[in-house]
UniProtKB/TrEMBL annotation:
Pfam families: adh_short_C2. It comes from Pseudomonas mandelii. Belongs to the short-chain dehydrogenases/reductases (SDR) family. Residues 1-35 are annotated as: Disordered. This is SDR family oxidoreductase. Residues 1-10 have a biased composition (Pro residues). Keywords: Oxidoreductase. Signal peptide: none annotated.
Length: 285
């Protein structure tokens, strides 16, 4: 609880989508610390937004638990190659899949290429997200609103539909929601709105897919130190990020990964349609 950095952090604005290698302090994605125990032996996982941050931490954890991983990302090639290096160092295969999730054809291609390489999908992790900060409602561009929905929720719908035919009983879908799903931060209005939609989508789809024995859950992180933060928030918020939580700091990606491992594993065989908060002590409704 006290091993990780607390704010204030240095000023470090980056252009969207941000680069993990340029962050100070450097996020801990479990590169040196996560220890696997075979909980996902032989599974195939497709993870979006896995070049950095939470997605990278999940990819590393899954690989060390025995899964082969397809890493979907936008265009952060250097970060994605670093993720692949850690996956392969764990003795697992890694497939890198760059492209824009806002495009319907790319969502289908992600599934097709994963199945072409690995034969099936056992775990789908919908983690990629876009956000921008706006102080005033009237300043939100229409095209940004649409893109936020396309990336954050419509892509999840499309990926789930495309992947479902390649998922067998016992498979798992894990969506990344947010503490904003029921406690929306007004300056992140489009993002927060999509995160509420993800929580609702998860609860409904979990019920729909229950008879197929395919589980659907979501994780709701609080303030986690990732490139999304330094590339989309004002300097002052970045400098003090996570300081208002009961633990007094932001979470590190490695601290979020274990709940994804649990939900992907057969140990979670009776868990579906649920949302799990990883918030540093901030209550959720």
């Amino acid at each position: 609880m006290t091993a990780y950095p607390k704010p204030p952090f240095p000023k470090q604005a980056q252009p969207v989508p941000g680069s993990q290698k340029k962050m100070d302090p450097y996020p801990d994605c479990g590169e040196q610390s996560y220890k696997g125990s075979g909980r996902l032996d032989g599974k195939i996982a497709l993870i979006t937004g896995a070049d950095s941050g939470i997605g990278r931490a999940v990819a590393i954890a899954f690989a060390r638990e025995g899964a082969d991983v397809a890493v979907a990302y936008l265009n952060e090639d250097e970060d994605a190659q670093e993720t692949a290096r850690w996956v392969e160092q764990a003795g697992r295969q890694c497939l890198l899949l760059p492209g824009d999730l806002a495009q319907k054809a790319h969502c289908q291609a992600l599934v097709d290429k994963t199945v072409e390489r690995f034969g099936r999908i056992d775990v789908l992790v919908n983690n990629a997200a876009f956000q921008m900060t706006h102080e005033h409602f009237e300043d939100i561009p229409d095209e940004e609103w649409v893109m936020t929905f396309d990336v954050n929720i419509t892509a999840i719908f499309r990926l789930c539909q495309a992947a479902l035919k390649h998922m067998k009983p016992g498979s798992s879908i894990i969506n990344t929601s947010s503490v904003n799903s029921d406690m929306p931060k007004p300056t992140l209005l489009p993002y927060a709105t999509t995160k509420g939609a993800i929580a609702n989508f998860t609860a409904g789809l979990g019920q729909m897919l229950g008879p197929k024995n395919i589980r659907v859950n979501c994780v709701a992180p609080g303030p986690i130190w990732t490139p999304l933060i330094v590339s989309t928030m004002p300097d002052e918020e970045v400098q003090n990020f996570g300081g208002q939580t009961p633990l007094g700091r932001p979470g590190q990606p490695v601290e979020v990964a274990p709940i994804y491992v649990l939900l992907a594993s057969d140990e979670a065989s009776y868990i579906t349609g649920q949302r799990y908060g990883i918030t540093g002590g901030k209550p959720m409704l």
